[in-house]
Recover the amino acids of this structure.
């Protein structure tokens, strides 16, 4: 099912609005579609040889003025930006660090030192995402205490089956230890801010 999006044309809106006031006292689906810029289901009716203005053989889309159908999203162009390449080897991580540094320095205008710091932070976050620390539900991964009414154990993480279950008060210490693990892993690969 494709959606038809239209541009707003003030003159056409006022003309159609006045025509609608004189023809119908209560708004219908066709009247609401007319306010949007085209008649309801104009594509289906045009294929059947009918138009929404009642005259056979006339082009219903011509009544839409300058409005055109919206183009579908180009998912294949957007997807690589969101998913990215998962780093597996030290060379992948160094390449990712260099790439992030270049983007921050050349495209964003940061100094080399600041660009490297930002790139290191990005790599540390990516390392944490790629190397989750899941734990079983009902017991805090940091202190080992069970879930009780006064101290609820909550899931931390976004991906299914990778949640770390922690008390809210235990999260800062757990996160600091995890961050230290990420920094140590990146430094072992030769990546430093």
């Amino acid at each position: 099912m494709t959606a038809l999006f239209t541009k707003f044309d003030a003159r056409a809106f006022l003309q159609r609005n006045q025509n609608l006031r004189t023809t119908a006292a209560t708004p219908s689906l066709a009247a609401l579609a007319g306010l949007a810029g085209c008649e309801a289901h104009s594509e289906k009716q045009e294929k059947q040889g009918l138009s929404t203005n009642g005259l056979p053989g006339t082009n219903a889309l011509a009544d839409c003025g300058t409005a055109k159908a919206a183009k579908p999203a180009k998912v294949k162009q957007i997807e690589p930006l969101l998913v990215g390449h998962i780093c597996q080897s030290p060379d992948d991580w160094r390449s990712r660090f260099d790439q992030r540094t270049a983007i921050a320095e050349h495209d964003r205008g940061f100094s080399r030192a600041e660009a490297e710091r930002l790139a290191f932070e990005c790599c540390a976050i990516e390392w944490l995402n790629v190397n989750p620390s899941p734990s079983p539900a009902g017991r805090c991964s940091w202190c080992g205490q069970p879930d009780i009414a006064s101290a609820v154990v909550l899931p931390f993480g976004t991906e299914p089956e990778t949640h770390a279950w922690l008390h809210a008060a235990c999260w800062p210490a757990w996160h600091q230890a995890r961050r230290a693990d990420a920094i140590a892993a990146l430094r072992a690969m030769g990546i430093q801010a």
